[in-house]
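Journal club prep — side note

Before the paper discussion, L.F. wants everyone to see what a predicted structure for a comparable chain looks like in C-alpha cell form. Sequence:
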Amino acid sequence: MELKEAALFIFKNMEGTEIVIKIEIIYFLGIIGSLILIVWRGGLKLGNIENSLKWLKEGFEKVESRLGSLEVKKSGMENPGSPVDPTKKGWKYLKESGLDKIIDEEKREDLLKILKDSLPENYTKYDVQEKARIVVLNLRDDTEVGKKMEEYAFDNGISVDILLRLGGLLLRDNFLERKHNVAPPPSQ
C-alpha cells in the first residue's frame, strides 16, 4: 500500500470506538479553501475570521507534524516508540551537522523562550515535542543556520526537514529538562 499525503483525523468516543477520516491533501485543501470562501462571503466579523484562521493554522500544523513524523521514522533516524528519541544514525547527523550545539548551546535560550511562548496554557509533553519540532523547523529561516543545514543535508543526501525535525527532539528534552537519549536499535 502506497502512503499518500493525507489529512488524518481520528475521533474516539467514550466507549473507545474510533472513527478515522482520511482525506487526501488536495481534497483537504479544497475543503479549507471552500470554508474560507464561505466565511468571507458570509460577512462574519473579524474576530470570527481570526478564530477560523487560527483553527486552520493549527490544523495544518497537525497535518504537517504527522506527515513529518512518518518521514523521520521512515528514514530510521528516530525510534518508533514513545518517547521518541534519535537513533544512533540520527545522532550521527545531529552531531556532524552541528545542530546539536546550535540547539543545546548557541541558540538554547532563544529557542526555549520561543517554545514556551508557543505552547497552550495546559500543555502536555506531546504538545512540547510537536511545538519544539515546529520551532526548530523555523531555524531554516535563520540565514546562517538554514544555509549551514541545507549544505550539510545536500552533502549527505538527507532532507533538511528531517534533520531539523530530529533537532526538535533536543529542544523538547531541554524544555522538559530531560537527558538526551539514543534510541535503542529496533528489536528483530
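L.F.'s comment for the group: Helices lie at 25-42, 46-75, 88-97, 99-106, 108-118, 125-137, 143-156, 160-175. Keep this in mind when we get to the figures.
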